[in-house]
Structure formats: structure tokens, C-alpha cells
Design a protein that fits this description.
Blueprint lengths: L3 E2 L5 H7 L2 E7 L4 H16 L4 E6 L4 H6 L7 E6 L2 E7 L4 H12 L3 H16 L1
Parallel strand pairs: 1-3, 2-3
Antiparallel strand pairs: 2-4, 4-5
Amino acid sequence: MSTVELTKENFDDVVTDNDFVLIDFWASWCGPCRQFAPVYEGASERHPDLVFAKVDTEAQQELAAAFDIRSIPTLMIVRDNVAVFAQPGALPEVALEDVIGQARNLDMDEVRKSVSEQQAAQEG
């Protein structure tokens, strides 16, 4: 499956309408981003059940700012509208596959419970 280009106009729809979205924050001038691109594309072909998306941080500065992206490439994984992974740096193929596997194996009920508990602790 080819990657989806995310913009501020389609971001919410793509993330809300899909259970598992990988997002690559990148820029055309970034050497590590160009090195990571074929690794990311390869993973998208091996995992056709997942949505692979890209955010061009130059064209979509508001999105990059909203997620406090300070280093690129940054990979983020969103499951069930919860960001479960975010890390800057170009991952090698083996590491990317490992991260995808770990994200697939998360118990999202436990993740949501943990997020709720953290929010409650911050509020009270």
C-alpha cells in the first residue's frame, strides 16, 4: 500500500477512521529522512492492513508544531486515536518491524485505562 500524505485538512479523518496509523514526519532537505523513506515504504508493503502516512514538515508546519516535532524524521504510531509511540530518528528495518510488532501487541484497553488514570492524576 502506498503512503498517504497527511495535511491539516485530512489529518483528523485519516487518524479517526483507521485503527492503526504510522506517521512519518519528514522534509525533502533531510538526509536521514531520505534514507528512512525506502525502509518505511518497504514496511508499508509488508503490512497492507496498516495505514502508513507522511507529514511534510515544511508544507505542514502547523501539524509539525501541533505534535511538537523538533527533530526529523520522527515516527509516530497512533492506535485507536491514542499516540502509542513517538521517536525521532531514522529506524533501521529490523527496529521498525520490532516497533510495529510491539504496537500491534498492545492491549488498547490497558492503554486507555492508563491514559485516563494519568489525566485524572493531572487534573486532581
